[in-house]
Design brief:
Two copies of one chain form a homodimer.
Chain A (H helix, E strand, L loop, with lengths): L6 E2 L9 H9 L19 H17 L6 E6 L2 H13 L5 E6 L2 H12 L3 E7 L21 E4 L1 E2 L4 E2 L11 E4 L14 E7 L10 E6 H4 L12 H6 L9 H18 L2 H21 L4 E2 L10 E5 L3 H13 L2 E2 L10 E4 L6 H18 L1
Parallel strand pairs in A: 1-13, 3-4, 3-5, 5-8, 8-9
Antiparallel strand pairs in A: 2-10, 6-7, 9-10, 11-12, 12-14
Chain lengths: 362, 362
């Protein structure tokens, strides 16, 4: 039983800024003088619409998006996007390119194939256990889009820069690094992120789609699976997940007003990652699993000399109020997720603990 | 600006029990001594699994479900179920019966047709503006299922009893009256409810499905659209909407432990409805829009002598801390939604106001 809040390195759902949690808590019985909770107000009320509009405008400002881009709030996570993307955007008789950098890429590929869609896996890092991001990829000239996973939560790799697809629309699952760094959105036809890492609580998925992609959407899709409906109805065709969108709006406000935007956020994230990777690299005790040039600034995966020490490390860390350090159940080992809301001091506490643990057990 | 909480008659998202909101608020920075918020804990942690298990067990107890029934937590509201039901349960070459009792039935019908599924509308109350529930319906002997809308939020009608389908599985959209009264679940193949009326905040949809229906699910559906996946993975194939499920679990606990179950809840709901309908029927000032035998105990729809008076009524009510009384934008008029969390004293305050308003303006 913890009396106080712990340092939370969970891979998602993950840490949120304390000031955001405090604001949700404060407003929880009476939001903005409505006399109702955010859970109780109408999604068609002025109060909710101003929250939604604010979340959209902040997203556009933070990512420097021009008017061709639409910000949508879908549900059912990135996993539903794996299905919606080929359904909406991969036209009859055409093919799309996919890059396979791990579990989440594989799932995206699987959902396109289930629908009988034609896709080509143009690059994969499976040969070395997904420990790196492929470079110098040859894309198909006639691909409808190129799908990548910008950050691989499980294997701890991240695209250092996005590939040049020579005008073919890029589509990226950015679930675990959305809003962690600035990037040029122009080459993207669509990018998306389950909120539960950098954006808010689980239960909402942000999708940013470019105008020209909307023209591909077939008429005869189920209504709730059509990007055009989300775009035309401003994500209000039916009742959206109001609480999750409210939290996202507060996180974006924190990013803009407290942190000062994505350049500043990226600088902090760089410092956090440098601190932990330099601790890993300093001795022979810890071993990073990702190839240095492909290392993720969001999910730092590492091993200890043996599994017993890993177990001991995770437990002792938790005893010291450092939580969420277990690697994904499919790969084992350790992982520290350093999303936006994880502060530099949290990472300092972790690296201090790592050094002590190494001294005692190395 | 309201300093205090108001009486909330919203149609959904809607009022939640104050004790539930207070518990969410209290635990918001540190849930059960985890040192983390419900927004921050892992969906694969013991803490979350016990919340999920508790929500499932309480649902089974409250609805008296036997082991053939599975309780699932989906996303994207009842609107996504309109699509998933025919996709999963209406097999190639077969047909299903639908009863049309208003907007939400129409949407369910539309989503089956979009998929090219064969359906038959066996009864409709469109002839009298959906003001009643059809009786003595002839169902097709070979229908795969019969789909009904148990309560019609917009038109204020509700099935007083469920039809005898002679063994054909019933499927019901119970979004606006789930858990408001006990019923015999055995004839149902599936029933579902967007949470944002009687169950919790928007962002989660409860689906209860019977074993034999799961056998119909085709293999080649997108993973996130398959009931079998939700059932096999206990709604944890991907990250579920943890906060919304946590709130549902607290609402169900309140229903069981504070209210005392669905018989008791139904008794309170009956009293609330009687109070307001008797106020409507007492003079000629208010006019109920639903046919008496089909009146909803959840959504009471009524008109005043003219639209100006309706506008004035809604505004003065809000000035008196009675909110959410505007009729649906598609029909106008007034509507008081009396979901489980709306107390008898809230309804007394409303009927007192109605009598006063009638005295001054009648």
């Amino acid at each position: 039983m913890k009396k106080n809040r712990i340092y939370n390195f969970n891979p998602g759902p993950a840490a949120l800024p304390l000031s955001v949690l405090e604001e949700i808590k404060e407003s929880f019985l009476n939001l903005n003088g409505t006399g109702m909770s955010i859970t109780e107000i109408s999604h068609r009320s002025k109060d909710f619409e101003s929250i939604l509009d604010d979340a959209i405008s902040r997203t556009k400002r933070l990512l420097n998006l021009d008017d061709r881009f639409h910000v949508l709030f879908c549900q059912s996570g990135a996993s539903m996007q794996f299905c919606m993307i080929p359904m909406n955007l991969l036209r009859e008789g055409k093919s799309a390119d996919y890059v396979n950098t791990g579990t989440w890429s594989e799932k995206a590929i699987k959902e396109a194939r289930i629908q009988g869609k034609k896709i080509k896996v143009v690059a994969s890092s499976e040969d070395r256990d997904y420990s790196y991001i492929p470079q110098n990829i040859q894309f198909s000239g006639d691909a409808e889009y190129v799908h990548i996973t910008s950050n691989n939560t499980i294997k701890g790799t991240q695209w250092p820069a996005f590939p040049d697809t020579k005008g073919i629309p890029l589509i990226a699952d950015m679930s675990s690094d959305m809003m962690s760094r600035p990037f040029d959105a122009k080459p993207f036809g669509l990018f998306y992120a389950g909120a539960q890492k950098n954006l808010g609580p689980a239960g909402v998925c942000m999708v940013v789609i470019r105008n020209d992609m909307l023209e591909r959407v077939p008429d005869n899709l189920p209504t709730m699976l059509k990007y055009t409906i989300f775009s035309e109805k401003k994500s209000l065709y039916n009742t959206p997940p109001c609480v999750a969108i409210y939290a996202v709006h507060l996180v974006l406000k924190w990013l803009e007003e407290t942190i000062g935007g994505l350049e500043k956020m990226a600088e902090i994230n760089r410092k956090k990652a440098e601190l932990i990777y330099s601790t890993i690299d300093a001795g022979g005790f810890y071993r990073g699993t990702a190839t240095p040039g492909s290392r993720s600034k969001m999910n730092v995966t590492f091993r200890l000399p043996n599994e017993n020490l890993e177990k001991q490390f995770i437990q002792e860390a938790l005893d010291n109020d450092l939580g969420g350090l277990k690697g994904h159940r499919s790969v084992g080992g350790c992982r520290a997720s350093l999303y936006n809301a994880v502060s530099l001091s949290a990472v300092e506490a972790l690296t201090d603990f790592m050094k002590n643990f190494e001294r005692k057990n190395g």
